[in-house]
Write a structure and sequence with these properties.
The complex is a heterodimer of chains A (about 100) and B (about 625). By secondary structure, chain A is mostly helical. Chain A has three helices and no strands. Chain A has helices spanning about 15-55, 55-60, 70-100. With about 625 residues, chain B is mainly alpha-helical. Chain B has two domains: about 5-25 and about 45-310 and about 410-580, Up-down Bundle (Sodium/glucose cotransporter); about 335-400, no CATH class. In chain B, the strands form three sheets. In chain B, strands 1-2 form a two-stranded antiparallel sheet. Classes of the chains: A mainly alpha (about 100), B mainly alpha (about 625). Chains A and B meet through helix 1 and helix 3 of A and helix 5, helix 9, helix 10, helix 11 and helix 13 of B.
Amino acid sequence: MSDSSSKESVDGLPQPEITKRVERQVCYVRSSLRVILCLLPFWFLISFGCGILFRDWLDEHAPKIGNAPFGFWMAQQGSIIGFIILLVVYAVWMNRLDRRYRISE
Amino acid sequence: MSQDVYNFIFIGFTFGLYIFIAVTSRASSTKEYYTAGGGVSPFANGMATAADWMSAATFISMAGTIAISGYDASRFLMGWTGGFVLLTVLMVPYLRKFGKPTVPDFIGDRYYSKVARGVAVVCAIFICMTYIMGQMRGVGVVFSQLFGIKIQSGVLVGASIVFLYAGLGGMKGITYTQVAQYCVMAMAYTIPAIFIAIALTNHFIPQLGLIGDFTAEDPKVPFLQKLNNINTELGFSEFTAGKLGKLNMFCITAALMCGTAGLPHVIVRFFTVKNVASVRKSACWTLLFIAVIYVTAPTIGAFSRVNLITTLHESSYETAPAWFKDFEKTGQMAWVDKNEDGKIQYFGPGKSEANSNAVFIGKGPSYPSDDAPESQLVGEYGQRLLANKGDMTNPNELWFGNDIMVMANPHMAGLPMWVIALLMAGCIAAALSTAAGLLLVLSTSISHDLMKKIVKPTLSDKEEVNYARAASFIALAVAAYFGINPPSAFIAKTVAFAFGLAASSFFPTLLAGIFSRRVNKHGAIAGMLSGITFTISYIVYFQFLGGSPKDYLLGITPEGIGFVGMLINFVVTFVVSYLTPPPPIEIKHMVDEIHAPDRLLAAGVDTESLEDPDGVGGEGI
């Protein structure tokens, strides 16, 4: 971040303060990408994984949901419930990130 | 009171409500016209987005498809909801941060090119038009059923109502109308399901009924077991098994998911809330509201399958219920008495050597002209006769369109008249809300991105809104035409094509634009063009020019080809981008800015200081 020292600060803050902000920003971007990369595998697993790719195996070996085979149930209902949970986790996680980095619009 | 009176009361009341809301919240500025001023609460926006999202395809056609194809229809269930996750996580926060409500606007600025913007506008027009066609068809099916009129007139009635409130009210009017429409849809979908679940499985929560026991007759058997038995007895494949290959299933689901994430009319809905935190909250609400209907759909599909077969199979035409004759009148059901015993027989492809259960020769039923002699119009038992010849290679006598399953369902179960009227109102709400949302995006693309940004930059706000209204009128006229002459028999299929187009054009370009600093305008333009051209030609060749299913690429049907188009788009985008010079430095900063939180930038930190050696925030994905 050496080049930032050559810039004029616009909001009148001292240079070290600005450097800290930039570092925080880079950290923030990195953490938010990590959130996405953590959630997407689950997204793939509960839909394509359980519902299509490993469906036959799961129908046979996984415990039944009520009277429905597991893979079939995941394809028809389970994955949708899973998606909602994913989005709630995403919202809560991102809000916590925002708080930690003291970001508010 | 008769059914018609109930229908008129429910539909009249809901229409009055929609138009009242549209008029009272009329948009006066371009900002209100496009994004409702940006102050809608996350909860209300969630409902509006859910209504916008769930179209006639979801509401009318999806449960019917589930009833016919069982497990295979999961592609719609998973595809449409899973795509919403992608949209929320990968697209919306970043596009929102960028601050441009329309997709062509983002593409035009990110790829610093009028050509890219132009290509995006053309793609948006194709996607929205295909999608609206499906909706108009849906409106037509419902109206024709409702008033016993031809589908053509039904489409025209629907089109004029959409124009009235979408064209006038803009986004502001649409948002609050859609909130009302969501409430109507949710009630209309779940109430009949609850009634039927109680009748068939003794559960008042339909979702538990599906995985519970079938209790309508002794001895009790698991419901899905019962359904499988019914299916296999008649020569269909098991309900819980699938006929589509794994690869096909994968491709169609993926095309629907990625298409969803590139759908311009849903992206714009997230510009109507206050900030990014509200966007995330609103997305949770939206998916929850969507799930209310999506988790009920499999139960409706399964229940109506059982009801349909137990009411109609082997029953004589003369004692067939009145609704059967109503659907016959509008051409949505047909009976060809092949063995001349006066009874309706329904069989699957397993009962014939040719492995087909086609009722007659030809794609859909066609009828003799109205002035033909009586003997050609009405058969021995009073049934409506077809002009098609019966297909005698199999014993199946019953034909029906997928799209009527949901509407016929309460009739089959003998539900009270007000439930049926409510369902009708819900069907219309579903089709209208989506058509209105799409129409708005279409008209915005034309007036804002085409007229103002490319053709005539001096356009005033007022002129722009006028262009938007004119564009929506023309678009509706075209959509109405194709609603009358649809490109495929079922709504869900037509809509699936729209998703394929969106997946192959917008999804990769948006994703690359957000997450890569290296992708330039040449790559984006080449990618979009190659993706959408490939997809359109595949669909047109196999759907309209009579390509035979034997020649499918790896056996992938036109519904799923958008996924392959998407991969082509990705490859072309990156290859071309790396062969041509990198984008200017401002664009790299723009990409960094999309990822960076607002407040830090507002404090005046020069974005150049964001250039870090690790490339974080740039080509991370």
